[in-house]
Amino acid sequence: MVVKDSSTSAPVRDWLRTHRDAPMRLFDRLITWFIADRHADYGFAIMRIASGSFLLGWLLLNLPIASRIWGPGSGYWQPYREILGYNFPFDLLQKAGPGLFWAWYIVTIALVVAFTLGWRTRIVTPLLFIAYTTLNGQNTPISDGGNYFIRVMLIYLILVDISRRWSLDARRRAAKDAPETQTGSVLHNIGLCLVVAQICIVYLEAGLYKVQGSLWQEGTAVYYPLQSEAYGVFPPLADLMTHWAAPVVIATYVTVLAQIAFPFLLFNTITRRIALLMLLGMHLTIAVTMGLPFFSGIMASADAVLVSGATWITIVTWLRTTVTGNRFARGLRARVRRRRAGKGAGADEESGTAADSDASRASVSQ
């Protein structure tokens, strides 16, 4: 009978004995991650500025027809609103007159501007969610995925410190040297987890839904929206993109694979960048060729939280250098400096002339 050495026959037991403190170390790292810092603050700043700009453009472009879409002129949608079952405060505009509607619309625009600039976002964000959802609920059939997605995001952004970077709140805090609390950091990072989870769910669900269709399985699905009259904004461009079969097949399969694999590609830096670039290309294509800039812009702005702060600092620095370092910008700054110097010299000359005249009057009086 052969007796095996227990020291060599129990590798699992040895590994567990060696790493018996691994759960506590993992728990400590998790707690530290939540309370030590507010992550993705630059990404949230980009998301705030980009999504706020798209919301503002959407409201301003629809300003001439706003009353017929969401105001008193949209009363024919009332049976549909009752089916949706919006309750207080999201039903305040259902029986509103022109005065209340336009006041609500203007206040919503003001909230979007404050949100974009990052002014008092802890108060502005929940108010914007109520104002925008109430307005959007007046006529949901004209909404697209971007409208619904930003409504969900606004709920999560209530928890997030979206004005920590590149905002008016950041300037005010720097002037007051206000400290950050651990409670605020925990809420911020919980909001970050919710935003990332929502993004992953949207892409994964969209990919799984697509893969069930025969057109996506055959590799021809991209062809039909590009050639449809409803989405055909630039027919010559659509014809060029669908002239050859290979690009259509590649775009179809890459879209499905990128959406389904997206949650799993986030665990590695290189694969995460590849996934974000593929989805950014998809959103740009949808915005240009299908005439859906609002939907694409809102979705792409949410993806910004998955880009590291160092990358955003590099991009912003490059843009700032490009915009302010070209020949036109340097010439404009030199012209402004010369004008200011000329005004300063003119003011000194006027003050000197006034002083000379005062001195002459004093000498005459003497």
Brief account:
The protein is 74% helix and 0% strand. With 366 residues, it is mostly helical.
Task: Describe this structure as you would to a colleague.
The protein is mainly alpha-helical and 366 residues long. Helices cover 74% and strands 0% of the residues. The chain has 19 helices and no strands. α4 packs antiparallel against α17, α9 runs parallel beside α17 and α15 packs across α16.
Q: pLDDT average, as an integer?
A: 85
Residues in β-strands, percent:
under 5%
Shape by Cα distribution = globular
Rg of Cα set: 29 Å
Count helical runs. Answer: 19
Helicity, as a percent range: over 70%
Gap between N and C termini, in Å?
133 Å
Biggest beta sheet attributes = none
- The secondary-structure element order is HHHHHHHHHHHHHHHHHHH
Kindly state the number of beta strands.
Answer: 0
**Unreliable segments (pLDDT under 50, ≥5 consecutive)?**
362-366
- Give me the secondary-structure category: mainly alpha
Strand and helix layout:
Blueprint: H1 6-9, H2 11-18, H3 22-36, H4 41-61, H5 66-69, H6 78-84, H7 98-117, H8 121-136, H9 145-157, H10 168-176, H11 182-211, H12 214-218, H13 223-227, H14 235-241, H15 245-265, H16 269-289, H17 293-303, H18 309-324, H19 327-365
Helix pairs in contact: 3-11, 4-7, 4-17, 7-8, 8-9, 9-17, 11-15, 15-16, 16-17
